[in-house]
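Re: that backbone. Tokens:
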């Protein structure tokens, strides 16, 4: 038995070493990639690099310079000049429209709402007067303007009186004349406004009967309104006299003066 064990033991050890050696070699072989796979990867990477290299080739300098010139065709200075030119054309067109066409538009536009600070009638009655009693409507507008002129002149004379108190009596005498005429005209137009309001209410209640009353009374009311303006118009006549216009000499200066005058009239 001892002899048999001694004889068998080396064989078994040798066999195990051989078997374990094969396993180790197989494991190392599986862990490391094969030469063919590595070669394949290097070829594919080279192919990829080759394609990328062909796509990233720089363009010729001549093309780059040409594209730069095209981009610089519209410079900032040119754009500013074009915008200024367009603005000048737009302004010129607006001025021409206001000068030559706006007057025609306003002439045919008809009734236009206005702020009449010295008239107590509401807007709908003023429109009624414009539609059915235009002479009375014109007198109401004139009355409003006359009151403004009278009040402005009174304030002007008062300022002179304060500046020269020793001559205050002269100013006070003139102020009484203007205030008396203003009060007289305002009292007359209070009655006229009452009559116009009554005609409007009659028209709203019964149009046929109201229009009949308008036809019967509008001439008398218009005459009363015109008579009430007589005294004030005589006083304010000297305020409306305009000094002769002095146009600068020369073609350029004369045209500039006329353009400025037109712009001022249009903006006022």
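Recovered sequence:
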């Amino acid at each position: 038995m001892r002899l048999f064990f001694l004889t068998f033991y080396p064989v078994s050890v040798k066999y195990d070493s051989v078997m374990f050696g094969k396993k180790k070699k197989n494991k190392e072989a599986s862990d490391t990639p094969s030469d063919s796979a590595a070669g394949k990867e290097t070829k594919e990477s080279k192919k990829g690099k080759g394609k990328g290299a062909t796509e990233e080739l720089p363009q010729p300098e001549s093309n780059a310079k040409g594209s730069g010139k095209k981009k610089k065709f519209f410079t900032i200075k040119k754009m500013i000049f074009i915008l200024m030119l367009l603005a000048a054309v737009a302004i010129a067109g607006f001025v021409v429209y206001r000068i030559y066409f706006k007057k025609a538009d306003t002439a045919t536009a008809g009734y236009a709402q206005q702020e009449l600070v010295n008239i107590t009638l509401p807007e709908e009655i003023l429109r009624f007067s414009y539609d059915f009693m235009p002479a009375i409507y014109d007198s109401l507008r004139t009355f409003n303007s006359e009151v403004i002129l009278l009040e402005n002149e009174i304030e002007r004379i008062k300022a002179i009186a304060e500046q020269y108190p020793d001559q205050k009596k002269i100013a006070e005498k003139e102020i009484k004349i203007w205030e008396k005429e203003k009060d007289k005209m305002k009292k007359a137009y209070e009655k006229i406004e009452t009559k116009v309001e009554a005609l409007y209410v009659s028209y709203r209640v019964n149009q046929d009967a109201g229009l009949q009353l308008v036809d019967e009374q509008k001439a008398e009311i218009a005459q009363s309104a015109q008579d009430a303006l007589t005294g004030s118009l005589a006083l304010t006549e000297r305020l409306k006299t305009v000094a002769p216009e002095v146009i600068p000499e020369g073609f350029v200066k004369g045209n500039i003066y006329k353009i400025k005058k037109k712009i001022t009239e249009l903006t006022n």
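The first helix runs from residue 2 to 31. The chain has ten helices and no strands.
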